[in-house]
Amino acid sequence: MPSIRATVLLTVIVVLAPLGYMYVFSDPLTPLVSDRMGEFVTAIEQEIGNNDPACVYVGPFPLRPDLRYQASGERGCDECKALETAGFISYHTRGSTGVYRLDESARPYYTSVRDPRARRVTNAPAPRFCFGQTVVHEITEALPPLNLGSQLAVSVKYVPEVRAPAPFLFSAEARALGLPLPVRSKASDGPWLLPPSILTFRVGHDGSFIEADPGLSYGKWVAKD
Fold first, then answer.
1. 75, 167, 192, 197: which one has the fewest Cβ atoms less than 10 Å from its Cβ?
2. pTM for this structure?
3. Cβ proximity of 142 and 43 under 8 Å
């Protein structure tokens, strides 16, 4: 007959085995996110379209560096010195002040056409330098929904991928502009990835809409100041 110690050990294994199985094999995504994965990916990329991390939002040119936010919508250019060092713009004197103008080397990267993915679409252009396009590589985790009354809050963690990154994105000048450094995935020819990001959404109880709320956080991903 088995000893008392062996019997106790066997009992513990039997009791804890299902919990261990659930821990190892449980889905890190909630059913809500799993069932509506495509819609969450689209909603995340709409937010990326508003402010792609592979882009520097500056312009339109010519741009006066001495302006700050005015009624006309013109502004100064805190990034212009770094862009000038990188060889994308140059300073030209005009009267008592001057303007920054695009150099020919900037043409492949500069656009004034708004990203078609952007959720807040207006008639105003979104001038910017883009050195790749950021998309969702994978949603890796989601928190259980938080009941907000008439809506649910759902936080997700996703891995951004930079498609067709320009060589400039890997330079010291890019770091001076605050651009992120993409890292190859494990495969030698794999995608270029950025560190995981977290984004919270407001979702109807019936799943009728999914709308990003970047200022909202809860649970283990509560934003720390």
1. 167
2. 0.80
3. no
Nearest-angstrom CA–CA distance, 64 and 74: 8
Pick from 164, 142, 168: nearest CA to 153: 142
Q: What's the pLDDT tens digit per position in 113-162?
A: 999 998 765 566 789 999 999 999 999 999 999 999 999 999 999 999 99
Cβ–Cβ < 8 Å for 152, 204? yes
CB 139 within 8 A of CB 111: no
Q: Which residues contact 174 (CB under 8 A, 6 or more apart)?
A: 86, 131, 168, 181
What Rg value do the Cα atoms of the chain yield, rounded?
Answer: 24
How many CB atoms sit inside 10 A of residue 218's CB? Answer: 16
Q: How far apart are CA 213 and CA 202, in angstroms?
A: 6
157: three-class secondary structure by DSSP:
strand
Identify whether the C-beta of residue 174 lies closer than 8 Å to the C-beta of residue 131: yes
Region of residue 73 (phi > 0: left; psi between -120 and 50: alpha; otherwise: beta): left
DSSP 104: G
Calpha distance 103→140 (Å, rounded): 41
